[in-house]
Amino acid sequence: NAGVMQNPRHLVRRRGQEARLRCSPMKGHSHVYWYRQLPEEGLKFMVYLQKENIIDESGMPKERFSAEFPKEGPSILRIQQVVRGDSAAYFCASSPTSANTGELFFGEGSRLTVL
Amino acid sequence: DQQVKQNSPSLSVQEGRISILNCDYTNSMFDYFLWYKKYPAEGPTFLISISSIKDKNEDGRFTVFLNKSAKHLSLHIVPSQPGDSAVYFCAGRETSGSRLTFGEGTQLTVNP
To answer: Which strand (E) or helix (H) includes residue B51?
Structure first.
């Protein structure tokens, strides 16, 4: 499967625990984006990363959320001390070095449920 | 600040008729506009895009129209098919960056 791979697809956490979501971009893509979709809402930008660099994190909550895209391995979105309001679908997208037409390729998402 | 807005949460059409999905934007820095389709429990998939220097782009049954003076774009699907039933998101990309700003989505239902 050459698409964007996200895991886990479903994750259940209790309040106060940590959630780690992983994303492997499409082959040949070096740009990764994380979006969040709350119930009954649209996709909200969180963070844009290239290998070992955070390019734009203007959509990330100031506390508890962090993201990385190491030189080797998948991109990780980490949520510490989760709260019920973090329950959402988290989508990762990737693009090649130059996304001329703006097209992003999305994974199937990771659905986080906080009990 | 809602830079991209889809005012209709839902739209229902008959199979074979035209579906028109609308989108308004406020950010003049968008250089590309894109439409994505999303089925339940799946990720969004790219449908069609248009450059801000064009006013129309067509791909098979899908046509996107851009009216820059009105800051409005629309997606036309003709003829509509039951398999087109999905949530459609409009998005804009700023010239200064690569991220997309999405609208809230419109649920399209095509009835057989």
So the answer is: strand B45-51
